[in-house]
Amino acid sequence: MTNALRAAAAILAAVWLVAAVPAEAKDKVKVGFIGPLTGGVSANGLGGRNSADLAVRLRNADAKAKYEYELVVLDDECKPNVAVQVATKMAAEKDIIAAATHYCSSTAIATVDVYHKFGLPVVVWGAVLPDITYRNKYPEVHRVNGTMINQNETNAELLTKLGYRTFAVIHDTTDYGKGHNEYFSAALAQRGGKIVGTFGVGADQQDFTAELTQIKALNPEVIYFGGLTPIGVRIRAQMDKLGIKAVFDGTSGIVSDAYIQGLGPLAEGTLAFREGAPVEKLPGGKFFMEKYTAQKYDNPPEAYGAFAFAAMDLILDSIEKVGPDRRKVIDDLANVKNRDSIIGKITFDDHGQNTVSVITKYVVQDGKWVVWEDSEYASGRRKLPRQK
Amino acid sequence: MDIGLLAQYIMNGLMAGMMYALVAVGFTLFFGVLDVIQFAHGDVLTVGAFTALITFVGVHAAGVHSGSIALLAMLIVAIFATAGLGMLIARYLVLPLRAAPALNTLLITLMLGTVLRESVRLFYPQGANPKPFPALLPANSINFGNFNLRLDNAIMLAAGTAVIVGVEFLLNRTKLGLAIRAVAQDEETARTMGINFVAIVLVAFAIGSGLAAFAGVMDGFYYNEINFGMGLYLGIIGFAAAIIGGLGSIYGAILGGFLFAALQTIGTVALPFASAYKDVFAFAVIIIFMAWRPTGLIREKISERV
Amino acid sequence: MLPGVIALALASLYLSALLAVEKQPLIIGLLALAVIVALGAYWMGWLASVSRSFADRENVLGTMAIVAAFAMAAYFHDDHFVLLLIVTVLLYTVATLGLNIQFGYSGVLNFAGASFFGIGAYTSAVLNARTTVPTLVVLPIGGIIAALIGSLLLLPVLRTRGHYAALVTIAFALLLKAFLEVNDVLGGPQGLQVKGMTVGGWSFNDSIELGKIELSFYMSYFVLSLALLVAAFILVRRLERSWIGLNLDALRLDETAASCFGLDVARWKITAFTLGNFLIGIAGALFGMVGGFVAPNNYTFADSLILVSILLLGGIGNPWGLAVATVIVIVVPEKLQTIQEYRFLLYAVMVIAVLLFRPEGLLPRPLRSYFPGWRP
Questions:
Q1: pTM score
Q2: Measured between CB atoms, does A81 come within 8 Å of chain C?
């Protein structure tokens, strides 16, 4: 090629490159999401991730947005040690301005110190352990979903009203299970229920015949379970194998389709409780479900998808207001009062905790989680095991 | 203690012991014929269990809904597939390394176990999650007070015993068994006597791996669930059981399996507040045992050429 | 000496590039480049001359390696994550050096390396939280506790050989994890937070600001880890060359012959096992403080297998090989996000390949050189 031709080629290439750059390129901003994408509770993690992704997409499609957002997703596998590693990774990367984090309480409580150390503002979307926001007063940590205290109060209330008096407690030995045990035992004691035995089990324990054999000998009317879906499924199945007839009473940890899929007909009659109204009854519920189904994700949003969406939306609003600076976002999130969101009005108290007063009671009926008040158990047409 | 409760504990222990014994027999067979510890045995069990699950899904998709046909299909496919896997491992990874130091074979099979486990986790759809295993055995149960005897557990116990008796029969009353025992005793002489060494080794590996698949399917029916890590735990315990009983002895392996289960049951009964301590207790006993009898209850006769 | 210097300089530049680059295609390109260059150097015999120059002039090259490490740290002075990665590599190398003494020099099987690492980490967690022992002193205490707990296993380890010995340490690895998970005093499955190191009133967990330059707080940990690694490296090297090392080698090569020559087999096995655990424990104690968090799930049998993989990949008995293997095993999966999920699978396959085709490892241990640099 002659020199002239080469020069022409170079100029053409340069012009093409410049023209290829969009007219007004928005600044890119990175936000993060951490949840359990693999392992026993992956359904919830994937639902949360899809919801956060939805929030980012909707914001990027909005022409009025000042920045273009990129979602960085990391998997905490619902294990505290993995969570600390990925949290360190996310927090150490200065480009990530803020993150929506954690479904598992065991992971969330392990990582609060990491976020504080690095100064990364986070909004928890699914973990219910109160200690996460209340153990320390870290300005970096906030939470949009409720804590487990109310859940357990409502739980104890319903069961004692139904006439049950003797309870056995099985809880996992992470801070999550221990928290449930603590609050439920306290709530039950106030209402005159009797706990005949408390058993701590490993979060990935396989064989519960030892605990269940002892429980069978103690003969409680209700088995309260403070833990997550994978072992919930196993305990319920093994209860049946040992011929134990009792109500299986769980927490928000088992409110998932995976629980019903794992058990089939055995799931019938399981009770569970969760903060927040069912998605359809949330202020922005219909909007959220419409947009979610339009995106055709592989997994449903599950119990906490709406909260993940709200958390990410809150973060994006904050960045839009004060710019991509971690410290400014922390200051802004400290002043969240009555902000609108699909889950209702969000207000953070001085520990960064939002108040979610509605507790929904669920019971499994015909292979689906049905709100208690709408179920045939409440109306009396069906009876729970050993119901008087 | 209540007799019903005791009976329940014993039943639980018997089930566990049966599974450990099946795995331990495999370890002992491999060691007998080739003087090698196949550490991937536990993960071969996992592959067997997942193969059974895939067969079940396939049978259902083909429109067959009969429980007994599905059960039969699962067992046959799982056992044959795993036997095949065992033979491949023997042929391409263990036999070529006979001349190398025994440590290399141990390490290679250890790593192979990791490969099998991770492959299941990564390549089976959503392999990291525990998978529900179909309940194909009749679930009726009879209640004797605190003791709940379930029909499916009884069937599995009977089937397991039958399999072990069958293996013992194979090894002690058939020509094939004679050949295996000959190779285990003295390879060179056996070859001189006209026994096809490689073929016998492959058959031994096939039998051992088939047993593992049976144990895996049993485990699946017992817990109604399988997951990618089930083999590691069973493999270590099977190995420990085979060692307690003395490597190279089938009876020792069976004894070791039930002994380990007994240890765990004692641990559970004695320490009711945390059943997880049963593992700590059992492994501690193993370590102490190894200090006392380094080559197991039924002593291995080793001679070392210097 | 020149081949060694060139190799060191190239390696440092390459490592810095690998750590700095973010885009996946570039990383894959860099890795492919490394493989090609390594194979090429091997075939051209350059690798042999590099290893010879390292063997001859180890002191000088070692000093240069330290300088190169400082240069890299200075380049990444405000990048938290890269410094954390470097510190991880340094501490894992120390732990593997400990494993090397047990496995590489004396042939004592230890499949519970990660458990002793964990014992050191838990020691630092408990001591930092409950007592006022100065954190610098906590490090050797962590090592001592690891060695003490290891001595519980001494009787079974001494009496068993081969696969029986393997069972003892595997059983211990499983036992320790089960114990830590069940035990509430040590935090159970939730683990414990570990307070950072403080030397003379200055906390390592505070960022350092020199005028306008802001240094990541991992910088102080880096200096301490490097110091630890240099000390461990020198110790291991001296040990290898000394009469102790000779005894250990004799023990590994043929136990019966060694005892015929009057070597006290039990004594040397105990020495190797205890010293190795001590090193692993110290590394674990410091790593616990760096990460700030310990949990039983960090120290499972699978993690012990990773340490053994590093040892096998790098070349049993060769400390420089260990360093290279540690970098491969720790840095590559972190950078190559796409294979993050597959990393256990890939390690296992790599080790199988190494065992089948090159059992001596990447950088096999050279023949014993009594007087480095001596020429007849």
A1: 0.86
A2: yes
